[in-house]
Specification:
Blueprint lengths: L2 E3 L3 E5 L5 H8 L15 H13 L3 E6 L4 E9 L5 E7 L10
Antiparallel strand pairs: 1-2, 2-3, 3-4, 4-5
Length: about 100
Amino acid sequence: MEQIKTERLLIRRFRPEDSAEMFSYLSDLKAIRFESYGPYSFAQAQAEAERRARDEGCWAVCLAGGRLIGEVSLSKGDFGNWQLHIIFNRKYWDKGYG
């Protein structure tokens, strides 16, 4: 699957050039409050964008026009269960995207 497109959103694979928009939510304590990591530096966001571009389980959530607003991933948990992971830039909370 290359991408999913709706009227309002595009879900696609990450790209290394997504780092600046990723940084905007990965550095936000409120956006990542349920995550197991702390806020990212810009350098960490750059490295993470490159890693996620190679990870088939991570998907970028973008507005239909292309702006990255968050991410979604599905991974197998420690006990054989599946975990759905969603993070959005706070600017886009409460708009019906999640």
